[in-house]
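pinned: reference chain
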Amino acid sequence: MKIKVKVGRRGQARIVEGLIAITIILVGATSAVYSVALKEGYAGLPRGLDELASSTLSTMLRSGVLADAVYRLDASTLKARLEALLPAGVGYDLSVYDANWNLMTRVEHGYKPTAQTGSAVLILVSNEGQPVSPRIVVLNLAR
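pinned: its structure tokens
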């Protein structure tokens, strides 16, 4: 038994209109969900603080400030750079250790461990022209 469906030009136009409407609704819904997700990430979820700590150390490393300040034990440069990069309301504790986990220097401002914390660790092997001398940089953030 064969079923024949006849769709005239008018029916095809309605199907096309329906598909266009569904596409517009899906794009709008996706945009709304994406914008809400971005706002939630900025609001300070714990995962967001981990990412902020990691990107802060990465930015400082790429600019050359981190390695230079760590090997010179220049706490004032570390503090100034951290305060320039981190948003207001985020406390930090940056500690630098040698290969044996002896504390070399520490910079802290407004860091109070709370329910919302994040951290990142970076290991520097050596500064240019210096003998191999690993430094472990730990950045803890709290909101």
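why pinned: The first strand starts at residue 91 and ends at 98. The helical segments are 9-42, 46-63, 65-72, 75-85.
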